Amino acid sequence: MIVSKKRNFILCCISISDGQAIAIKLASQIDKVVNSMKQGLAKLNLLMGDKIIAFDDIKDPGGELYSQLNSCTDINGVPAYIKKKLVHLVSLEDRCKEEQVLVKGPF
């Protein structure tokens, strides 16, 4: 009985340390992405000149920047987000056809 309790305690410690290691790796990856976004934003602000964009504006997918990108229309009046979804679906269909050919193959 005592051995079982010790074993469970050790297993809990191992899983906690694994979770901590995962959290540390995830935090470093998030830091890399944030730093990359900040560098890109600095370059963008240099190019923009008069209008300066804040980091809070670009990190929010529901913000004004993203809504403008999604509402852009081409000469036919098709919104950009619709075109993006259609391109994704066409690519998915092509990949599915390739997979079907591979599965049926010359076996």
Radius of gyration: 24 Å
Number of strands: 0
Task: Tell me the helix content.
Answer: over 70%
| Major beta-sheet overview | none
**Terminus-to-terminus distance:** 56 Å
Which structural class best describes the helix and strand composition?
A: mainly alpha
Global outline: flat
Instruction: Estimate the mean pLDDT confidence.
Output: 77
- Residue runs with pLDDT of under 50 for 5 or more positions: none
So how many helices?
A: 4
Topology pattern, helix = H, strand = E: HHHH
Strand content: under 5%
What does this structure look like?
The longest helix has 47 residues, at 2-48. The protein is mainly α. The mean pLDDT is 77. It is built from four helices and no strands.
What is the structure about, briefly put?
This protein is an all-alpha fold and 107 residues long.
Detail the topology: elements first, then pairings.
Elements: H1 2-48, H2 55-59, H3 64-71, H4 80-104
Kindly list the characteristics that best describe this protein.
about 110 residues; mainly alpha; 4 helices
